[in-house]
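Appendix B, example 12.
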Amino acid sequence: MDTLMLSRLQFAAATFFHFLFVPLTLGLSVLLAIMETNYVRTGNEEYRNMARFWGKIFLINFAIGVVTGITLEFQFGTNWSRYSEYVGDIFGSLLAIEATVAFFLESTFIAVWAFGWKRLSPKAHAVTIWLVALSSNLSAIWILIANSWMQHPVGFVIRNGRAELDSLIAVITQPFAWHTIVHTVSAAYILSAFFVMGVSAWHLLRKQNISFFKKSFRLAVSLALIFTIVEVLQGHMHGGEVAKIQPTKLAAMESLWETKKSAPQYLLVIPDPDRERNLVEFGAIPGALSMLAYHDFSAEVKGLKAFAPSERPPVTFTFVSFRVMMILGFFFLVMAIIGWLRRNTVEDRPKLLKVFLYSIPLPYVASEFGWMLAEVGRQPWVVYGMMKTSKAVSPIAASQVAISFGAFVLVYTFLGIVAYYLMWSHARKGPADETALLAVDDEEVGYA
């Protein structure tokens, strides 16, 4: 493999591994804030114990996310220096804002929250976790704005052979960015909700700490219901933005080769990119793709043949990624509705609990396939319509990238095993006597 392919694989491995931890940080921080707020509002110690229990999982997850995020950004200098040279004035500015504002705020208040259980009043402590949640999500927003600029570059001028920022307002207010933000953050909340529901289901099946995990389940299923509905509705609107801004991605998502009016959507398609056609097309829904793309059943949708072969994304990969994400999205909606309707008696429904338990990995799968769709569907462009990926790679030897790629895989595999082992070990043990632990903390503070 050449330098380009190895660099793409290394960045993909680093990105997808990092994104195993980001969504849980975003959603679990909000759930922790809700738990602490309920404790302040009601005085019920169980809510504080819930925040302590789920908070330990949150801290493990956050630590690995930070480590992998930092190494990810270094690759823009090592593997993608031509990209950084060409668009660094814009992309670098957005990453700098994220790091110096959101990330530092998040890291500071996580430390205050983690060590401030008995040093702060309950209200002040609850405020710190809300600030963590706010800054975590603000960090994600800036990263997604940067990524959206790569998907749809706006607010820049070409000067001295480089892209330079002309309007920060245009970059941060473009509709494509906010569609991406709502879609991605909603997916993170869904993942976090299903994680909490799945772990709660494991304990409820064993009749352990029923009141504790029933409350956890009820909080999580309410979050899941809200954001699965948001995700499905917003996904339809996001499809319209993709059709307008990235028509090649839309055509690849549906494996549509010929330009058609009243373009159908198929339940099953087997693409054959080599022959520029589909081997199998089953279950056509007339006009559905036109409606998805342009909100008009008779609208014309451009097929892949309307674009040069060199400007088409990998069709099969893009098509499969979209289908997996979409099918799982509707599954989460159905499960959230059922879980919410059965939330008061969920401990007496072992079959339903098993479905939630076995569903823990599925939001991770959906999120990763969503990112594959976004990034692979943009190819062959690193900045859509402006700079091709092949022009962005650093002028370095393939052997150098191969060595670093191998090191990344080994280190990340080790970190992943350790992280998920620690989280699962803590989750299986269930809540300790947090009141007693807090008393011990008091004694430690006194001795100090």
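The chain has 15 helices and eight strands. Confidence is low (pLDDT under 50) at residues 440-448.
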